[in-house]
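User: Design a sequence. Structure:
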């Protein structure tokens, strides 16, 4: 397996002999790390529960985390989920890497589509899955929105979307997301939206793909999944807690067990940041 070096490693190498002009303040365009303090209640709860650090979380997931995450989906997007429609995970990075390997494992010539530019883990997952990649170019001309009419898209076994998008900040409306859900149903392809930036917005709240799924009448979320995480919304990437939610058939059909081979779900005991 050959993985590309992380872009920030490449960037550091390129910048290493350059002395910045001290007349200007530095603008750090580095990893998507929150620049705000982790909220007090998270820090406090963590301190009160350090005695639990010698315990593994349940590999099947803690019920209170699942509940808090479902209540977030209900409160924020009006999407009511059954506990079996959500799996709590470590970070979403880990799922973005492992889910494509799980889903594409039995395909003869797997094809994965995702936006370009992209979060590098999508590419790592494609390499590990031996998948051919279809890039959904985000350009000034298309308003940084993926072209749903791209002919090669119909060959995809898995499409990853990432809206609100990193790095372009572009957002797809409820209606636009609904068109993607219809596409996933029509061509029977799994659609996964990486929604870890859903809570970072100015003005109108971005919609979730699961909300769009309900909007177009796909009430069982067939072929549709979303990921979310506390890393950005709660300024807590060090805690590693997120979820994958949507199509129960995909989630219950072995994914849960595959995920627990590599990841444990974690959160602060009794109180997940998703509960606020
Ligand atoms: C687009 C995107 N998806 C997922 C992640 C990973 O987030 P997590 O901390 O949940 O692994 C990041 C983190 O930078 C990201 O930018």
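Assistant: Done.
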């Amino acid at each position: 397996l050959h993985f590309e070096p992380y872009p920030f490693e490449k960037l550091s190498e390129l910048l290493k002999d350059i002395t910045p002009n001290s007349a200007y303040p530095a603008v750090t365009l580095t990893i998507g790390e929150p620049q705000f303090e982790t909220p007090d209640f998270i820090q406090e709860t963590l301190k009160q529960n350090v005695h639990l650090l010698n315990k593994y979380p349940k590999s099947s997931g803690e019920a209170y985390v699942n509940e808090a995450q479902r209540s977030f989906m209900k409160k924020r997007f009006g999407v009511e989920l059954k506990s079996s429609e959500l799996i709590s995970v470590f970070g979403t990075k880990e799922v973005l890497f492992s889910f494509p390997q799980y889903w594409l494992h039995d395909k003869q010539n797997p094809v994965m589509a995702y936006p370009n530019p992209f979060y590098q883990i999508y590419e790592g997952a494609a390499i590990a899955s031996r998948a051919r990649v279809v890039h959904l170019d985000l350009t000034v001309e298309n308003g940084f929105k993926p072209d749903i009419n791209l002919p090669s898209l119909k060959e995809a076994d898995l499409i990853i979307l990432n809206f609100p998008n990193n790095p372009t900040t572009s957002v797809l409306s409820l209606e636009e997301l609904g068109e993607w859900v219809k596409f996933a149903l029509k061509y029977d392809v799994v659609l996964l939206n990486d929604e870890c930036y859903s809570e970072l917005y100015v003005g109108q709240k971005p919609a979730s793909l699961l909300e769009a799924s309900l909007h177009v009448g796909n009430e069982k979320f067939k072929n549709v999944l979303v990921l979310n995480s506390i890393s950005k919304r709660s300024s807590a990437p060090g805690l590693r807690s997120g979820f994958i939610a949507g199509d129960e058939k995909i989630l219950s059909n072995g994914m849960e067990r595959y995920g627990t081979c590599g990841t444990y779900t974690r959160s602060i005991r009794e109180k997940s940041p998703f509960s606020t």
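The mean pLDDT is 90. The CA atoms of residues 28 and 264 lie 32 Å apart.
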